[in-house]
Amino acid sequence: MKSAGVTSLATAVTTATVVEAQTGPRAVGPGDVPVTLIVNGKRLDLKIEPRVTLLDAIRNRADLTGNKRVCDRGTCGACTMIVDGRTVYACSTLAIEVQGKQIRTVDGLASATGTMHPVQQAFCDTDGLMCGFCTPGFVVATVAVLEKYPNATREQISKGLDGNICRCGTFVRIMEAALKAKQVARG
Questions:
Q1: 179 lies in a domain?
Q2: Angle, alpha carbons 93-96-98 (nearest 5°)
Q3: Between the chain's N and C termini, which has fewer beta carbons within 10 Å?
Q4: d(CA 100, CA 113)
Q5: Predicted TM-score of the model (pTM)
Q6: Is residue 81 part of a domain?
Q7: What is the per-residue pLDDT across 37-76, written as a single tens digit (0 to 9) for each?
Q8: Digit-coded pLDDT (tens) for 132-146
Q9: On the CB side of 110, how many CA atoms lie within 13 Å of its CA?
């Protein structure tokens, strides 16, 4: 077997496998890498560093500024977006991790003709906002709750909005907006 080189081939293959297992997957970066995002139904081809958050990629590179940076730690919910039907804090989600997934922002909720989404309209009608920093996150989180539970109870809505904070204290009107939007969505 030694004369056929099978032993050296087996050693090389085994060594490469062991090295790969010890070092992990191939590193990406430093520097810009191509990242493709599907945001509000449109494909965005970006060149960004792997460390760029979804919020930064969308606000700074795609110029969709509806979602806000408030805490930058994933604790307030102002940056909430919907990724494949689930809410995420965009300030603590890497853009590179959501490639190929459907991303929805507050900017994409209105119709093509400019008509507000029923949740956006309900927030306006009930004055469910104050300073406006938390509003995009609450609107997106409310949309996600009502899509998951079309006949949502007050408890389901409250749980769905649990990770969002309004420092101005408009929680009562935010709940009114969510309940009103639920009624509009049902008919």
A1: yes
A2: 65
A3: C
A4: 27
A5: 0.83
A6: yes
A7: 999 999 999 999 999 999 999 999 999 999 999 999 999 9
A8: 999 999 999 999 999
A9: 10
